[in-house]
Amino acid sequence: MVAARSRARRTVRRTGLAVALAALTLAAGVGSAPASGVTGGTPATGYTFAAHVQVGDSVRGCSGALIDPEWIATSAACFAGVGGAPTVATTVTVGRADLDATGGQQRRVVDVVVHPDRELALAKLSAPVIDVAPVPIAAVAPTAGETLQVLGYGRTATTWVPRRLHRGDLTVQTVGGATIDLAPAAGASVGVCKGDSGGPALRPRGAGFELVGVHATSGQAGCLDAPAGATATATETRLDDIAAWVRQTVRGGAFVRLPTSAAVLDTRGSIGGAPGVKAAGATTSFQVTGVGGVPATGVTAVLVDVTAVTTTAGMYLTVFPEGTTRPAALSTLNVTANQILSNSAVVNVPASGKLSVYNNGGGVHIIVDVQGYYTRTGTSGGGYVPVTPTRLVDTRSGLGGGGTTTIPSGGSRTFPFTGGVIPAGASTAFVDLIATGATAQGWIGTYATGGTSRSVMDYVPGTTSHGVAVRLGTDGRATFTNNSGSPIHLVMTATGYFTGAPTTGAGLRTLAARRLVDTRSNPAPMPANGTVDIATGLPPGATAVVNFVVVDNTAAGYLHAWPADGTEPGTSLSNYPPTADLARGGMAKVPVGTDGKIRVRNVSAGTTNLVVDLQAWYPSS
């Protein structure tokens, strides 16, 4: 920001918009088209939500504001008006007024959504920023004569690239259908310069601020190397009337549970187009969008059931978005020789609509079913609501109805799910499903009234468990089938549910899956009945979608998991067998504490190592 040399208040003509937008974005280095800053303003402190956007090493620099833990609002010109993943590496710095100092947080931009009619871009960050409070978007338009505070990292009256946040006050002249025209008050000399593009215009609210607009164009009077005829005006992109669009864009994906899980890969046959046993080190890609009821477009992630049919050795599978670098340390499913075993996983869907699966050893057939998909369209699906882990079904005690008998080979049983922690009207229950007492391998199918059965879990002798999405009928009930030569008991613990509308509950936030902890290297194996606290890097109140992998255990057991500052539940997650199985994984959803941590207890008479991978998350609803 720089001092304006003219107090003229005429607005920038729309015919000059393209030139003005280009002028407001600034190259990183001194020389061609440098970035701008608030001229005539003062160095700003305390605006921790202010963001600096750096496109490439020297392509351009812009300003912006954190509006959500993983999204910033800025100018579409910063990304040349193009949405999607940036083609040039782009870094956002939040909470650092002086870019040459330390502190704050830096994130990569992984996706850009451009408003169809406004000079506005929403940029998604590679991971949430948890130590900075986002600035809320104003619900009420400004009025003529109102004073707004403007921020920017751009050029000043004396410095091409100040690398410092500046602020100043401008007065609202007129409010249009999509823009707000600003000018300095009489006698003042404040303006918006190159590099301020996308910076926030703020209204004080209580002890904080609300975001009224982002910088779009400027007359640039008072800016270093200002063009001839520069004026002291600026135009902001108005936000209050498109706040609903912003909320819908950033809220995450609503979940649509398919009536019957879609088979997208089965290497025992032609499904997925990759038949045959997969050798150690092989990577197999397959289509998930446009298949079996999954839409061809608008899908951000899928909930899959991944099954390994092993032949020769113990190994693991890793499912990841096609075209991305496989996370070398992560596993989706761990199995031993001669097992048929499954696990659930949430996986991001790239633009190609394809996923890849890697197997690290042995010969294996791979089966992948899509239980449901996530979409940001806003017209279908439901949001997620976590609940206190509550046991709904236990055929050993008769909980859930149907008596205390096992479910026989080929048998089925219907259970009610709503009326307690899961309310009537919920579309889908998310439960930790346990098959126990099995003497043979088999699989469990589930369907709502009027549906057909498809596997959600392949189990092995003994006890098998992991999280699954259970589609509910309008009567709140679901049927489970036992497809094996062995009778089994079923135990189900509800950990959450999906609502019946896309605007209620929380949307799924995607990220690049990453490892949170591996006690084989740090801190140490978990003792019998011992606990470990795990930092998730998620905001307070969030729910983490994790894969728990038990490794090198010395006895059978199970896990408890809960917010680190919360109350320990009495129900189990991720039941694991004795030592013969080497490693066993189970997907779960666990709320995090106010410090962003979850606590896990090893409920066992033996020790174990624990590996925890983060797949996705939901914000507080």
TrEMBL record:
Transmembrane segments: none annotated. Keywords: Signal. The keyword Repressor does not apply. SMART domains: Tryp_SPc. It comes from the Bacteria. The keyword Ubl conjugation does not apply. PROSITE patterns: TRYPSIN_DOM. Residues 38-251 form the Peptidase S1 domain. Residues 1-35 form the signal peptide. InterPro entries: CLIP_Serine_Protease, Peptidase_S1_PA, Peptidase_S1_PA_chymotrypsin, Peptidase_S1A, Trypsin_dom. This is S1 family peptidase.
